[in-house]
Design brief:
The complex is a heterotrimer of chains A (about 290), B (about 350) and C (about 240). By secondary structure, chain A is mainly alpha-helical. Helices cover about 75% and strands about 5% of the residues of chain A. Chain A has one domain: ABC transporter involved in vitamin B12 uptake, BtuC (Orthogonal Bundle). Chain A has eleven helices and two strands, in the order H-H-H-H-E-E-H-H-H-H-H-H-H. Chain A is globular. The model of chain B has no long low-confidence stretch (mean pLDDT about 85). Classes of the chains: A mainly alpha (about 290), B mainly alpha (about 350), C alpha/beta (about 240).
Chain lengths: ~290, ~350, ~240
């Protein structure tokens, strides 16, 4: 019984990491309906962006992340400005194809620059520290921190969306692009800012990804599919929905693994399909699409 | 005044000429094993099945608007069915290819019921997830090799229908004869899929597809059952894809879940071929597969740089020639080799 | 007449192969209210879309204070001080009433008569519903919000596209009662309307469009009913 409680807690905590992967994706998809197939690889790119100053200057990863964030913001802004803004429109294929090409380029570029060696962001003892909860239950400090960060990120993003003029502009552009232009909103600039912010979120995700497990240039696509599942389960435009989606996937995977370790990933996918068949628009979609 | 009689026509003069030329080409290709070396035959098998996959994906996404990133589900399914039928049920491989297609069509129905709940980008991701489910499920079957996969023993293919005739006629040994028969199956698929797509589009079914592509709501109000039309296309494409998957693994003779259900090999490269050539045209994938083969053949040795080139090419084409090479040519010169647009023709005076 | 604040010269507009406008000449003086009337498909909305940059036009065919603006995009047109109340209201559905108003000043934030306070004074009903999601409003409330949103940018020229569409007569009257206060500030108004009576009541001048051309123009008081009928319907 307690064993299952432990599993559920593990699942929820894993969900925090998936929610972080998904949050940036949710932001982009919500604001500009862009299906970014390179999102997973951009997280990996961010991980290397944290690793580099961390190794060169001997920073710890958290400090490295602080350095990487403005770099990733600029990269995201530039990417949107130069490339992705040209692909947006009614058609689904151009953004799919372009972001897929981007995914290949980032993966192989990283392979050339950093080789296929596995890397890790080292923090020291805290990586494996845990909090005793009584009985035989213990929660890892890092997973707890990850979930906490996911919640904090989503709180901040919601503050941005619902309490600032920029956030209003994001929501308006997402609601009705034509009328937003009529209101004087430069949607290309709005999109570039949104992508920049999404890259900052991706950096946070990369931080926890790199601390938790080894990473190498090719792990992007696997993370991408979990992120997508979380976003779709949550529903268009709902960041809290994305958090819920992440937790559902995390729970499904952990419970599945407990029944049979080989079923971990399959369980996540099945949970996704079940939710999506019964609620095609997700659990908490905005009232309009 | 007498009303003028109008007719609906699809022929163009160029198309009639090219129809004859295509038949000639297919006959030449069929006779090729008599002269060509084994290397060329194997290369052509690759070209043929990639072309067939591209035609299928194009029908699904370019014409029916179902942008799927999960067709690898049916490629892998077809491959595993071939192995199961030839090893397990001792069925002749050629018959097994056809049977795999039929069984894949059966699997396609419940699959469609799941993925059709989703639209647009959700449909694309959903189809990818479903393919992953297929992969993970097949990895559980220990009888078929589980996660590491299994090989097709020579005994399964040594008795393939027609092999004795080929060995005698072309004076080759069993392995080469097997390749030649596989080659002919591949050629049949490569020639058959464009023809199939053309026939579908010329039929009333095709008219329904065009209507749905232009505006689903309007089409429905005109009496088109959009769900059943799309289901029909999806199942048809799944059957064809299943047969192609069976053929692919007949040739490779070794299957594993990661390879059979690879999103890169059976979706990404296929989509790349269609886009480079021209999505929404039958001619496009033909051009695309030639370009892809050339790139693969000459540049694959460059490893990561080759892939970076492919990625860059995908981006450049999408930005500057979104209709692909054929799309660009067709627009500039107004050519159509496989004319499917219906044109209003006045009776000749 | 003083030099016009807005004028169109030989304005043409196309939707793909379809031509909607065949050379429209109109002149709007500063502070004037001009009504554009005409049947469905006459080109009235296309005219407004061309002015606001939703449809591209030749640079010289639309002039604002003498400067050619025909080729500018919608966002830039707003920054100049030309705001539109679009047909069908088109409020932002995930924004509340107040947020819809606030977004009106996002693109052009200038000091002027119009602010949240003065808009609420103009349309008191909105103040009560300020926190309501816009999709829960009645037609009349939505129309008021849409007008308020356009006013928040303190425009020099206000374009109103069929603001009476789908509204009950008493609601329409309520909305038109606000017009004098808007005119008071010297704002020029272009009113596209199917409700001819209402339009003629508030307008200083009227243009009638028919199949993409100007078929009649003049002061409401000078136009006879038969003239208007002929210009509107073409027979």
């Amino acid at each position: 019984m307690l064993d299952w409680l432990g599993t559920i807690i593990q699942g929820a905590l894993l969900g925090g990491l998936y929610a972080l992967f998904a949050a940036g994706l949710s932001l982009i998809f919500g604001v500009m309906r862009l299906v970014n197939l390179a999102h997973g690889d951009l997280i990996v790119l961010a991980a290397f962006a944290i690793l580099s100053p961390a190794t060169w200057f001997g920073f710890d990863p958290f400090l490295g992340a602080l350095f990487a964030m403005p770099v990733m913001f600029a990269a995201g802004f530039a990417l949107q400005h130069v490339l992705l803004n040209r692909t947006l429109g009614r058609d689904l294929l151009p953004p799919l194809m372009v972001t897929f090409g981007l995914s290949i380029i980032i993966q192989n570029g990283l392979l050339e620059a950093f080789t296929a060696d596995s890397r890790r962001l080292r923090l020291g003892a805290i990586e494996t520290a845990s909090i005793e909860l009584g009985g035989n239950l213990a929660i890892g400090v890092m997973p707890l921190l990850t979930l906490g960060s996911a919640i904090a990120v989503i709180l901040l993003l919601n503050l941005l969306f619902y309490r600032t003029a920029l956030g209003r502009a994001f929501r308006a552009t997402s609601d009705d692009l034509e009328i937003a232009q009529l209101m004087g909103i430069d949607h290309h600039r709005i999109y570039s800012i949104a992508m920049g912010i999404a890259m900052v979120v991706a950096t946070v995700a990369a931080l926890y990804l790199g601390i938790r497990a080894n990473f190498d240039p090719t792990i992007g696509p696997a993370r991408l599919i979990y992120a997508f599942e979380a976003v779709i389960i949550g529903g268009l435009g709902s960041l809290w929905g994305t958090l819920a989606g992440g937790i559902i996937i995390g729970l499904a995977q952990t419970v599945g693994a407990k029944i049979n370790p080989e079923w971990q990933i399959l369980a996540g996918h099945i949970a996704f399909l079940v939710v999506v068949v019964s609620r095609p628009r997700g659990l908490f979609p905005r009232s309009v699409d | 005044m007498e009303p003028t009689q109008y007719r609906i026509e699809t022929k163009t003069r160029a198309s009639a000429v090219l129809a004859l030329a295509s038949v000639a080409l297919v006959l030449i290709l069929a006779a090729l094993p008599a002269f060509a070396g084994r290397g060329l035959i194997q290369d052509l098998i690759f070209v043929f099945y990639m072309l067939a996959l591209a035609q299928c994906w194009n029908l699904l996404a370019g014409y029916a608007g179902l942008v799927s990133v999960g067709q690898q589900a049916f490629v892998g399914l077809g491959g595993y069915l071939l192995f199961a039928l030839t090893i397990g049920a001792d069925i002749d491989p050629i018959a097994a290819v056809g049977l795999s297609g039929l069984i894949a069509a059966v699997f396609a129905v419940p699959t469609a019921l799941v993925v059709f709940r989703l639209r647009g980008p959700y449909f694309a991701i959903g189809s990818w997830v479903v393919a992953e489910v297929y992969r993970l499920v097949f990895a559980q079957f220990k009888q078929l090799g589980g996660g590491t996969g299994t090989s097709l023993p020579p005994s399964a293919t040594n008795e393939i229908f027609g092999i004795e005739w080929v060995k005698a006629m072309l004076e080759v040994r069993s392995p080469a004869a097997r390749d030649i028969i596989t080659y002919w199956i591949a050629l049949a698929l490569a020639a058959g899929t464009p023809l199939l797509v053309y026939l579908v589009l010329r039929s009333r079914y095709g008219l329904a597809l065009f209507a749905i592509r232009d505006s689903e709501a309007t089409a429905e109000s005109a009496g088109v059952d959009s769900f059943r039309t799309k289901l029909g296309v999806y199942v048809l494409v799944a059957a064809a894809t299943g047969m192609i998957g069976a053929l692919i693994y007949l040739q490779k003779a070794r299957i594993s879940p990661d390879a059979a259900f690879s999103v890169l090999d059976w979706s990404a490269y296929v989509i790349f071929i269609v886009i480079i050539g021209g999505v929404g045209t039958i001619e496009g994938p033909i051009i695309g597969v030639i370009v892809f083969y050339a790139l693969q053949h000459y540049l694959a040795d460059f490893g990561t740089w080759y892939l970076i080139l492919l990625g860059t090419l995908a981006i450049v084409i999408m930005l500057f020639a979104p209709k692909g090479i054929w799309g660009y040519v067709a627009q500039r010169y107004g050519v159509a080799l496989f004319p499917v647009r219906r044109m209003l023709a006045r009776p000749h005076e | 007449m003083r030099s016009p604040i807005l004028e169109t010269c030989g304005l043409t507009a196309h939707y793909g192969d379809f031509q909607a406008l065949y050379g429209i000449d109109t002149v709007i003086a500063p502070g004037e209210t001009v009504a554009i009337i005409g049947a469905n498909g006459a080109g009235k909305s296309s005219y407004l879309k061309a002015i606001t940059g939703l449809i591209r036009a030749k640079p010289d065919s639309v002039r604002f204070e003498g400067k050619p603006i025909g080729a500018l995009g919608a966002a830039n047109i707003l920054k100049l001080g030309i705001a539109m109340v679009p047909e069908g209201r088109r409020l932002f559905s995930s924004l509340t009433v107040e947020e819809n108003l606030l977004i009106g000043s996002y693109g052009r934030d200038v000091v002027g008569i119009w602010s949240l306070a003065s808009i609420y004074a103009l349309f008191p009903a909105l103040k009560e519903r300020r926190a309501a999601p816009s999709h829960t409003l009645s037609g009349g409330e939505q129309q008021m919000t849409a007008i308020g949103r356009a006013l928040m940018s303190n425009p020099r020229v206000l374009l109103c596209d069929e603001i009476s569409l789908g509204l009950a007569p008493i609601v329409i009257r309520n909305i038109y009662d606000a017009m004098p206060r808007i005119k008071q500030n010297g704002t020029s108004i272009i009113l596209v309307e199917q409700d001819i009576a209402q339009a003629m009541k508030v307008a200083d001048r009227v243009y009638c469009f028919q199949e993409g051309r100007v078929s009649l123009s003049g002061r409401p008081t000078e136009l006879r009913r038969e003239q208007v009928h002929l210009a509107y319907f073409g027979r």
